[in-house]
What does this fold into?
Amino acid sequence: MATRLGKRTLQLETRPRILASAGVAGKREAQGPLGSRFDRIFDDTTLGEVSWEKAESKLLLSAAQSALNKAKLQPSDVQAAFAGDLQSQCTSAVFGLRSLGIPYCGIFGACSTMAEGLLLAALAIESGGFSVTMAATSSHFCTAERQFRHPLEYGGQRTPTAQWTVTGAGAALLARQADAGAPYIDKVQLGTMVDLGVKDAGNMGAAMAPAAKKTIADFLHDTGTTPADYDLILTGDLGEVGSTLLCELMQREEGIDLSQKQRDCGLLIFDREKQDVHAGGSGCGCSASVLCADICRALREDTLQSVLFVATGALMSAVSSKQGESIPGIAHAVLLKKGEPQ
Amino acid sequence: MATRLGKRTLQLETRPRILASAGVAGKREAQGPLGSRFDRIFDDTTLGEVSWEKAESKLLLSAAQSALNKAKLQPSDVQAAFAGDLQSQCTSAVFGLRSLGIPYCGIFGACSTMAEGLLLAALAIESGGFSVTMAATSSHFCTAERQFRHPLEYGGQRTPTAQWTVTGAGAALLARQADAGAPYIDKVQLGTMVDLGVKDAGNMGAAMAPAAKKTIADFLHDTGTTPADYDLILTGDLGEVGSTLLCELMQREEGIDLSQKQRDCGLLIFDREKQDVHAGGSGCGCSASVLCADICRALREDTLQSVLFVATGALMSAVSSKQGESIPGIAHAVLLKKGEPQ
It folds into this structure.
């Protein structure tokens, strides 16, 4: 049974293990610093499909299948998939996973989806009713761009604060039991919406930073820990603007220096010196592919021992922006630790 | 701890209680057979807002606040809200619940959202980490119509198989402890997508009936029960076409006669003789408002003892339909029982 630490954080008793995870990505992501870490790379980001939306579904399916292969599991071994994406009505996850026949729980957390999925997949195991669960999500530059911003053919200028939606997907399989080296989920926190009135859909980092600050501050407070207790506080995806804001807010409002431990998936996945991605990467597939391909592997390889994963989401739509709404941010936290629990 | 019955169904040990629930609805719904059961009725379905989307958010907030009032709880007493809706990026739930400050878990299950939310809200309690949780969802005829079908001003003809999206919302509060009369959640089942290739977005009932059939058949099989063991098998929202198909499929493929016990929220909410709604009601708010306003009350009033609630969703978008995709259906099951567990 999970127990509540402080007001918002949960200590998991079963400490669900990450049996296997896989992150797949497109050509531009493969050219970035994490290129060698991805489980599969698609140079042709149409993936041979007739639409970008169908391509994204295939990307998500590829991540799910890679994770299943690594875990030597069949889809029928998985008792629940918690999945979603940025497409309206979360159709990438629906059509990506349709063929697998896994009981399906559709979720929507914008770019926080990987953390939300891991949290639910872990809670499902903690409830006792599930032995093996999956969390998965995806994004595709072309589906996001034409849905949220402009037709691709328009070729509009992007502001310096804009982020580049990652073409990528991640999937993780959780289980009650796993091999000795498997990382596990120790604690989780479901985030609360924070909306300070940012309306600029070209500056998601600023919209999401206050939510990340709240979740991390609540987590540190609930657990009585400091940033020094973690190898990494991994946000995703605040980019350059949002990461700077997060550290400033944390210093000013909480007196906590986050700068030594905080890294952002949107900044890790691209080399901003060489790649024209403005403020960094974004999209559900950004933190999902970085976590599932790079971070989980580092936890297995012993180069990381404890990672506080805090994926952030901007809960807006093209319609809400056109109707003048501001952008509520949200951030969910998942504490990953290496090897066997003490 | 939850235990697994058969392959897919979970027996909940904590049997989370429905502390309070509320269903709110618009003018047309108020003129239907359940008019007197709704907690609040809005004759002006703009709810004084400048857009239908903002009106829908207010509808969802109204249901959530009514449920909180009935339970005599503050938003800060609720540790998680599982909510979503049909709008792209689930913005009705986001903007509806933003002001309450409840930790937020966005979900997407199309018209199955109320069952998915109840299932997750119950699992959260079962995990031990949550004492009070909320499930909520909404739909609005005008937001759904212009998003999925045609501009409202177009005034197109609707086919006889089409369903009328309910303007309504429902919210339920779950807790480990409640008063003696509170109904409780005994068993749950997360559904699996079923897609038999239906592509007609004007015939959702046909697209969803096979998923409802699978979930109900699995549930009866896992629990070793028959329809006679339940007062009501409540689907939502198959309408006339889907309900007929469900009963036919169940009879032909499983040899089970469902017709005496199956009723559909889409048929209960409107009087099809007097109201021009074609095959019946639909939308997340249909089964949510019927369940939260009428059925939960009947369980408290002792006129129902056990209700197998099976909300169904059509997992499609306007984009997926335009790209020629078929419509995967899904159905989640939640077994509600009256009073105190034995």
About this structure: Chain A has a mean pLDDT of 96. Chain A touches chain B through 59 residues (CB under 8 Å). Residues 3-175 of chain A form a domain with the Peroxisomal Thiolase; Chain A, domain 1 fold (CATH 3.40.47.40).
